[in-house]
Design a protein that fits this description.
Elements lengths: L14 E3 L5 E3 L8 E5 L6 H12 L1 H6 L3 E6 L3 H11 L5 E3 L4 H6 L3 E2 L3 E2 L2 E5 L5 E6 L6 H19 L4
Parallel strand pairs: 3-4, 4-5
Antiparallel strand pairs: 1-2, 3-8, 6-7, 8-9
Length: 161
């Protein structure tokens, strides 16, 4: 597996279908920041907590100009059930064979369980923040909001990161 991408690295172009079959491309976001969160599996307790935390803060994330995309290796039908059951307002991308997970270098836990890592990518495609925590799914939302607020403050100050 390639080395894990870190803050300051350029994110690879993301081009995956979501649960509805719509292709989502990071190069078509028009300069909006992206919260990309990789999670292990639909409808597991930690993943549900994480997904619902992003759902509960979705309006705040949108107010910060961000898009939110969740990614796992589950299929489209599983993603549709998960999103419907929990009222998720953002797309869940189907990462068949975990190709995107591998491109980002998201680590596995004990070589078996897919990791839980959130990337905050600025409008220029640069990774600005990486948060890796398997056990505290809700913390991913807090970390993402803090990173978006830093990006906004840097932009307002003209420092641009």
């Amino acid at each position: 597996m390639p080395a894990a991408l870190a803050a300051g690295d350029r994110a690879p172009v993301i081009a995956l279908s979501d649960a509805e079959g719509v292709e989502r491309r990071s190069d078509q976001l028009g300069g909006a920041p992206l919260i990309l969160f990789f999670y292990p599996k639909d409808d597991t307790p930690g993943c549900t907590a994480e997904a619902c935390a992003f759902r509960d803060s979705f309006a705040d994330l949108q107010a910060l100009g961000a898009q939110v995309w969740g990614v796992s290796g589950d299929d489209a039908a599983s993603h549709r059930r998960f999103a419907s059951r929990h009222g998720l307002p953002y797309p869940l991308l189907v990462d068949r064979g975990n190709a995107l997970r591998k491109a980002f270098g998201v680590p596995s836990v004990l070589g078996l369980l897919p990791g839980r890592v959130t990337y905050v990518i600025d409008g220029g495609g640069v990774i600005r923040h990486v948060f890796n925590n398997l056990l505290d799914g809700a913390a991913h939302r807090r970390e993402a909001i803090a990173a978006l607020e830093r990006i906004r403050a840097e932009s307002a100050a003209g420092t641009g990161g």
